[in-house]
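To whoever is on call:

I kicked off a structure prediction for a single chain this morning and the downstream step that reads the tokens threw a length-mismatch warning. I double-checked the sequence; it's 206 residues and nothing unusual in it as far as I can see. Pasting both halves so you can look.
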Amino acid sequence: MLDNFALLNEARRPWLEAEPLKQKFLALSSEFHPDRAHAAGEAQREAATRRFAGLNAAWQCLREPKERIGHLLELESGARPADTPDVPAAAMDLFFETGRICREADAFLAAKGKTSSPVVKAQMFGRGMELAGRLNELQQVIARRQEELLAELRELNAAWEAAPAAGSAERTAALPLEALERIYRMLSYIARWTGQIQERRAQLSF
């Protein structure tokens, strides 16, 4: 199984600092850039291209918390977390609130789209601004929840640093994989809700 942590010479752990990871990627990608092998044989050029593409894919994976911990779960347990429709209990409040405000925004946008009267559209302006404000407030709440999850990821690093070496029979039992999968699912929903909110905010801006 491809290990993106190993490709970037990083130890496996849930949290990675963004700037050091970026600098490591830039240094490695410069070292293995295909342009540096332009005078080499075809096989070497192809190998350099594959290595460069692998480094880029590893960087894209590890730089995003959700993708990174999904990959980490796959490495440690042998399988990526399955996509399930179940909403985590800790996310139910945001699930219902996001759905409610998005439905209100959709109903408003549908009504606005049916009218051609400039007067009516002007009268609806205030309602549109109100909905946009509520969506913005909800996005801030979701962003705070995301920051709490990222703080949890930082704390989980200690478990990986203290765990037996990769390949050890005791490693899996020593790692808090259930906690990591819970964070993964929460981040998945947060990404979905953020996309839904941004879509409505963009529509309300016109």
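Update from on-call: the warning came from a stale cache, not from the record. Cleared it. Sanity check on the structure: The chain has a mean pLDDT of 90.
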